[in-house]
Amino acid sequence: MHCVSRVRLLLLSAIFLHIFSINLISASEPVEEHSETTQHGIFEPGPFIFDHIGDTYEWHIIDIGHKKISIPLPVILISRNQGLIIFMSSKFHHGSKSYRNFHIEQEGENKGSIVETLPDGTISLPFDISITKNIASIFVSILIILWLFIKIGNAYKRNPLSPPSGIQSLLEPVILFIRDELAIPSIGKNKHERFMPYLLTVFFFIWINNMLGLIPIFPGGANVTGNIAVTMVLAFLTFVVTAISGNKNYWKHIFNTPGVPAWLKVPIPVMPLVETLGIFTKPIVLMIRLFANISAGHIISLGFLSLIFLFGQSNQILGYGVSVVSVLFIMFMTLLELLVAFIQAYVFTFLSALYIGMAVEEHH
User: How many alpha carbons lie under 13 Å from residue 334 in its C-beta half-sphere?
Assistant: First the structure.
């Protein structure tokens, strides 16, 4: 029954985490998917790569000739001139047209963002809370997490003493691994249980979205954990949990570190400043680590894919030869990223557990 209550807390934490991240993801300036990647017939790998790892206002499926097939997503804008505006992204016709004086900027500092042309001809940026590709992918992961853990929770309720079977037998070792190898060693046997829902939420959210990002077709392909707004929310939640859970001993070590010479604490509080800075650098490291590692994997794979077109432009036969090497390397990178998807979820969860453990540790 303890496991059922943990699952319920896990689901509530997951929903809160996903909803809290929506505004920050929307503010991360999505780019119009599949913008022009050639100039005068020359393939440009830079726009090609960043168009694929960036956020978009539509979910691209496939190109058939010059026709782009994609799933339109809701555009939700709050304009100072028109108020609340809601419409589907298909009104933009893949960024080539405007709708109700709104259009997707194709160049300049606001490239990829929706801007409004006011009656006097000036440009204004509306407050954008649209459901972009990354946010839609987060909702997909919500459904997956709900399906997985409601199914597991119901199985425990029906047969609490029976051995696990099916999806339950697949995920139970992972849950026990997080509890026995991360939570208990880092936080302690007596205090780890109240932090398990958060740690499980973080782990499965990162792992599932990492795996979805490796699927090239719908409902995969979104670069959720490679979006710094998402990793910032995850790191911020770890920061909040750590700060709220910190006991008297934790704050004493920050503001009056024992065993440190007095001249490092007064009159110039060197050590308190260093320790206080450490409170903020820890979540920043969590944010950048996850963002950089996930984005780097996608960029490397797309870079080797770009080599096929770059060499093919100069020599078609050379392009065929390079394509064999590139495809083999992309397959290797994909297998490696399957491992990285788990490792990055593990590292983020482990460091979060470690920071929480430091905050709740009692004085010896």
Answer: 15
Give the integer Cα–Cα distance in Å for 343 and 201.
Answer: 16
Characterize 190-216 residue by residue with b for buried, 16 or more Cβ atoms within 10 angstroms of its Cβ, and e for exposed.
ebbeebbbbbbbbbbbbbbbbbbbbee
Residue 198's pLDDT is what? 93
In the prediction, which pLDDT does 16 show?
A: 47
pLDDT tens for residues 44-61? Answer: 777 777 777 778 888 877
Quick one: tokens of 170? 């697949």
Q: String of b and e for 327-348 (b: at least 16 CB within 10 Å)?
A: eebbeebeeebeebbbebbbbb
Report the distance separating Cα 228 and Cα 285, nearest Å: 12
Exposure of 301 in the CB half-sphere (CA atoms within 13 A)? 19
- pLDDT confidence of residue 308: 75
Angle at 336 between CA 334 and CA 337, to 5 degrees: 65
Q: For residue range 323-342, list pLDDT tens digits in order.
A: 777 778 778 877 888 888 99
* Regions of the chain where pLDDT drops below 70: 1-41, 43, 65, 257-260, 262-265, 313-316, 319, 363-364
Place of tokens 């995920």: 171
Residue 137 makes CB contacts below 8 A (sequence gap 6+) with: 209, 212, 219, 220, 222, 224
Residues 6+ apart with CB under 8 A from 146: 11, 14
H/E stretch holding 102? strand 102-104
Distance CA 361, CA 364 (A): 9
The token pair that represents 93 in the structure block:
């016709």
Q: Position 297: which residue type? A: G
